[in-house]
Amino acid sequence: MIVNVNILIWAIFKKNMKIYYLEPPVLIFGVLFPGFLFLAFTQGRNIEVNSLLPGLLGIIFFFTGSSVGPYITPWETRTKTLERVLSTPISVTILILGDITSGLIFGISFSALILLGGVLFF
After folding, report:
1. What is the pTM of this model?
2. Which member of 82, 91, 92, 113 lies 3.0 to 4.6 Å from 76 by CB, making a disulfide possible if both were Cys?
C-alpha cells in the first residue's frame, strides 16, 4: 500500500497542533518571555515605543515559531507516545518534516495575528 507523503506530514501536523501548541511552556516561551525581554530592554532608556515595536514583534515571531520544536520530543518521550509514533509505518524523515511544517504554519499564523493587531492598533 502506497500512502501519499503529504497525507503523512499533514497527520503529524494535526497531531502536534492538537496536543502541543497551546501548552503553557509554549505560550510562556513564545509570548511572555519576549515581553519581559522587551520590558528589560526599555527600562531606563528614552526610546519611543514606536521605534521599539518592530523589534518586539520580531522577537515574538521568532520565539513563538520556534518554541514548540524543543518540547515535542521530550513530551512524547515522557508520556510514552514517542514509541507509538515511531512504530507507525512512517520514516523519521516524515516525522521531522511534520514537526517542521507544524512549527512553520503555527509561526506564520501567530505572526499574522500579531501583525494584524499591530496594523490595526497603530
Report:
1. 0.70
2. 82
